Structures are given as structure tokens and as C-alpha cells.
Amino acid sequence: MEQQGKRAADRYVEIGEPPFKKTNAFSLLSGSQIPNDTVNLVVMGDSGVANDEQKQVSDMIANYHQQYPVDVIIHTGDIIYPDGLSSPDDTLGYSHFEDYYLRPELMKADSQPVPIYAVLGNHDHYGDADAMIEFSKQHSQVLQLPSRYYKVNTKHAGINGVETEIFFLDSYPMTKNRTRYEQIAWLDQQLNASTAERKIIVTHHPLRVYGYYHDNAYLKDTIEVLAEQYGVCVCLAGHDHQLQIQTGSNGITYLVSGAGGAALRSSGVGSDSIFSAAQHGAIAIQISSSHIRYIPLIEFNSEYPDYEYYRQ
Questions:
Q1: What is the pLDDT of residues 4-62, one digit of tens each?
Q2: Eight-state DSSP code of residue 107
Q3: Distance of alpha carbon 41 from the chain centroid
Q4: Residues forming a β-bridge with 276
Q5: Do residues 81 and 262 make contact, with C-beta atoms less than 8 angstroms apart?
Q6: How far apart are CA 283 and CA 75, in angstroms?
Q7: How many independent structural domains does the chain possess?
Q8: For residue 3, is it within any domain?
Q9: Looking at the domain assignment, is residue 270 inside a domain?
Q10: Tens of pLDDT along 137-164?
């Protein structure tokens, strides 16, 4: 049963048990070694409001990047509030996105910015979704949004580490009974053909979540079924303005990262909760062939101690 609004910090003794293990993150973030085949991701979402909280989250990601160089940032949608972009030249693309993430502290060793691969959120659809795609192609040095749904293979993208394939979907039309079957057929085909050791699916709307929103039945009946069939390890989403990690009995980890700047909503916990926080931030994921670490990037305090979680 969902415990609406109850903080996961109240349940630290109960949650985080096998198949997850929980350790204090301080030693990890102070310079401990990570496996050589690690792909380092940061997941954020629901960010484009141009406020102090968005800058705070950008700073958190930048600080983490200085300790553990990030290969890719994944944005779970709602890139620009309140109504996306009106055209590829809309200045909101800069004031509400580019200005926060194109910064020296988020450059890679080759002096290129850490790329942000994104999905469209409902607020991006309230404007011209194609304009957001064209903004990424014509103007942005950071945003990677080649189409409404697509995949990224880390090996093909020149990223060293365990081969990881990430499938980015446009879930908003699915919630409105539009272009459902085309995307699902594409996902089925791509997952079936994938030989990557690790597979990740990204949607804006969560398949599973405890919070302001609830599980999405259609996404579970379609995307989750394929995720189970083809051995997907993680399903990422945003939309609910909080941070959350939960584990399913099907072996999939469900992560919600929708606290990139927009006003927070209540978080909740359930029997399969690992972490839940109604707090601005992001979640880092260190993926290797041996295990996956999940590291909340938040302002730690007595209510939200600094923990990291890993799954073997």
C-alpha cells in the first residue's frame, strides 16, 4: 500500500534491503574508486523554470561532475515551462535551459559540454514540440533531442565503459491515445535487436511512482511488459516533482527524477521503495558490468542522510 506523503527517511531501517544494498555515500563521494567499465549518468527533469532552484540543481550536478566526470545527463522532460517553445528561435531556450547547463563546470576533458539527452514532457508539448527538437539541432550546444523518440548506444557514442543502450520515448501522446502503437512497435523491435549488456528506458510519465501521481496502467501494460521481456535494468521518468527509487520483483529499478527546479510535490513510499524525497536535486547512476549505483544529489540533512544504493 502506498503511504502518501510519508518520508522515506522514516523507513530507512525497512527499505534498501536486498536485492539493493545501502551504504553511506560520503566515502564514495570523497574519491573512492569506481569500476573501470563504469558509465556515469546523471538524471534530472522538470527543470525549465529559470529560478534559484534550477541553478541549485545545476550546481549539484556540476559539483558531482568535478569528482566523477559525467558521460551523459539524461533529462526526463518538461524542459521549458510553462508552454515549451513557440519556435526554434524562442529565447526561452536560452533563459530557461541553455544558460543553466552550458557552463565551464559542466565541460568534459575535451572541453566539450556534457551532453543532455532528453525526452519531451507534457509542458514541452503545450508549445511546439518540433520547435524544441529544432532548437536542439540549430542552436543548443548542450541539448540532444534528435526526434520524438530515439535511442543512444554509449559504445557508438564514443563513451568508454559497459555497453549501455538508452531508449528515449515520448510518453505524452501515449497518455492522450495518440501514436501509441508506432512507438511501442519501434521499442519492441529495438529491444529485440539490442545486444547491449545494460538497457535503460526513459519516459516523461512514470510507469510506477508513489506521490502526487500514480502508476500509469497503459505504460505498465506496454512498456513495462517489453522491459521485462528484454531484460531492461532501469526505467527512468520525471513528471512527479520529487526524487524516488523503487525496485520491482521483476528485477527492474524504477527511478523518478522530476525535481530539477519546478515546484515540489509530495513524495510517498511503499513496500518496494528504496529512496523518496520531496527535495530539489537529481540522481546519479554509475553503471558497470558488476553493479549499478544510485546516488541522490540533494542537500543532505538530518531528514535525508547521504546514502547511495547499489544493485548487483
A1: 333 333 332 233 444 565 655 544 444 456 889 999 999 999 999 999 999 999 999 99
A2: B
A3: 9
A4: 244
A5: yes
A6: 11
A7: 1
A8: no
A9: yes
A10: 999 999 999 999 999 999 999 999 999 9
Contact 235, 248 (CB under 8 A): no
Highest mean pLDDT among 131-140, 276-285, 291-300: 131-140
Range of the domain at 80: 38-298
- The helix or strand, by DSSP H or E, that contains position 152, with its residue range, turns out to be strand 150-153
CB atoms within 10 A of CB 229: 11
Q: SS3 helix, strand, coil % of the chain, rounded to 5?
A: 25, 25, 50
Measure the CA–CA gap between 257 and 240, rounded to whole angstroms.
8
Nearest-angstrom CA–CA distance, 218 and 176? 11
Residue 242 placed within a domain:
yes
Q: Which of the four pLDDT bands, split at 50, 70 and 90, describes residue 176?
A: confident
DSSP secondary structure letter of residue 58: H
- The CATH number that applies at residue 228 is 3.60.21.10
Instruction: Work out the percent of the chain whose per-residue pLDDT is above 90.
Output: 74
Q: Environment class of residue 62 by beta-carbon count within 10 Å: exposed (0-12), middle (13-18) or buried (19+)?
A: middle
Q: Which grid cell sits at 126?
A: 503545450
In a domain, 238, yes or no: yes
Is this model's pTM higher than 0.85 or not? Answer: yes
